[in-house]
């Protein structure tokens, strides 16, 4: 009898691929083990065994496998179940899910590039002959493809040898040039050793008698060193002595003080991890009890707690309970909210039970987390991670927390699997009969809708911890300010006034300016009106080369307007302004204050993000100008004022969620103000102070926002009332993209009629020489989602049967928002 296995290859194949194995191999193998297999003309892949059977494939002759790479399965049954759900729901191959889930070190293939890890010394005598040959080759060449190793060793079966060298740390995989997790550097200061003795200090103080401020700093430091008997942070010194950072810098420059850094490494945890959890306030305790009560009946609860209401402490209690009964917890966060602030907070409670799974981690660290989870080790009982940590091999999951559940970065756009981590989390929890807690100060409409339908339980927490007041939000009418000449650059007199006061009181300021969309929106500089699409309730974007206004959802277009539809003035303009310009203007307005900027440009570099956050935390920066990134659950204690430079930029973004997102962003940014006992202040500059969203933000009226937006979604047939699937066509030939998209749309329209929108070119219709064109399929609640997908798959198959269309790349994105 012949024996076969079906394997999952890490590539977009619709079906599992079948290989021939010997009887002994078939007895040894079980699903989830890795095997090295040949594929195509000369490729080698690491594949996962999916099933073992005796049925030869009908369409091709099965090749034999190269070899078996594991003794036991490296994935779990539940994990595979979850992958299968993702692959079917998000219409991608199981291999693509596997590729996203597994560390690269698990998936060596012929194209993988290896290089020598110089940090690890090796005793050549300890290497086996073949290992030596590889290491030797890498002395002449900085890197090798695995396919080249095949020819060096003159044998096909090289993966175990390489696996072994990778395990020993002798080799690096090319893809592994990750940044290491950011060490936190804290700035400390001490008296320069020249002045350490009593006499010398005396002399110094005399010398400084003409500089009383500097003298004061030296004296304060001296007292602090004597009484505290521990290193003194620069921030502590500025606070105690009341000196500016400028004075301290002068003293350092004069070699009176000496500055040094201590690395506070928050990943390598070395504390005890037994900090007592904080006692919950009454409001928190009530919320906790409600969550518990919901979990008795439902599998998902939504915790809607205003900013700074203390949601994290509630999570901590829920996690503790799971840890006590020996279950695993997954704590999901949007990528950039995964800060050391939070990690260290959790490590204080749970010590080295906490594992962090992060894209910035190196391959080896990921493999370690993976292995710990497979063996249900205590070391990975509480996993904190971004999106992809969902795909890890959980064995005993009890709870998933999805923090900031409204965040758009939970959705993966490219490459496949294009999954939404919140939704996939709920499915994963259900596989384990575990619970999911969604948390947010500004829940997504979908989640709040699900809660209002009774699908999820709902818990509301409306007070801030310690009864700190919600910030006082004031709207500043830009049209009025411009008219009355009360503007300096982009700053109104109110903004300048509040900033001046805040700085005088010694507090910090955050200024928020979002990056503009890719394609410019037209805005009237007199009244702030933006032309809207009559069908879609989104702003039209301006296309310069055709002098046209277009809707990117339905394709509606009109010639560029000569005058504003709102006020009739011919003051329509496309000009925008970004964070950089704001930063420049602040420097002119407050020349003696320290300004920093946080956006994609300044945080790109190594440690960029952490560095800026740290220096702001340490109060080395007075004013932080930034984009969206500022909104992510950061807890700064000394921020009293938050300024939103232009709310209209957000409101007019060409997307059906623009209003919802504007509310979320502004409420979240505002939430950074006044997190301690004094009340924070928020100024929102806008041309539309009467815009409902702004009224709702300023009165913290989430429910009004929800009701109004739901009404719009209902009227315009958008989620969560309708579901969406976006289909994108890509090809370098403009005509071919058009023909392909038209053909596809026509087939779809026969079935789904008016619920098919497009084909339409997106704002940027040519990317890396490929033209893009989109079709949007709207799915009413009553229409079966799975039948709709089946129909799309059928159309897709016929599409691929047309020779001319085959080269066109088709990307299907389910729930593309
Ligand atoms: P949220 O996540 O809801 O915005 P946080 O969990 O960050 O709020 O809490 C806000 C602040 O209040 C934090 O500084 C936190 O340390 C503090 N805090 C919250 N709950 C408690 C508690 N029970 N005891 C002491 N401090 C608390
Ligand atoms: Zn439209």
Instruction: Please write the CATH class name of the largest domain.
Output: Alpha Beta
Q: Calculate Rg over CA atoms.
A: 30 Å
**The biggest beta sheet, please?**
7 strands, parallel
Work out the helicity level. 25-40%
Please indicate the percent range of residues in DSSP E strands (runs of 2 or more).
Answer: 15-25%
Mean pLDDT level? 86
End-to-end CA span: 51 Å
The secondary structure category is: alpha/beta
- CATH topology category name of the largest domain: Rossmann fold
The total count of helices amounts to 27
The CATH homology group name of the largest domain:
P-loop containing nucleotide triphosphate hydrolases
Low-confidence stretches: 176-183, 264-272
Please, what is the oligomeric state?
single chain
Biggest sheet, strands in spatial order? 15-16-14-17-18-13-19
**What coarse outline follows from CA principal-axis ratios?**
globular
Number of DSSP-assigned strands: 37
What's the number of structural domains? 7
Bound molecules: adenosine-5'-diphosphate, zinc ion
CATH architecture call of the largest domain: 3-Layer(aba) Sandwich
Organism: Winogradskyella thalassocola
InterPro entries: DEAD/DEAH_box_helicase_dom (IPR011545), Helicase_ATP-bd (IPR014001), Helicase_C-like (IPR001650), P-loop_NTPase (IPR027417), PriA (IPR005259), PriA_3primeBD (IPR041222), PriA_3primeBD_sf (IPR042115), PriA_C (IPR041236)
Family: Belongs to the helicase family. PriA subfamily.
Cofactor: Zn(2+)
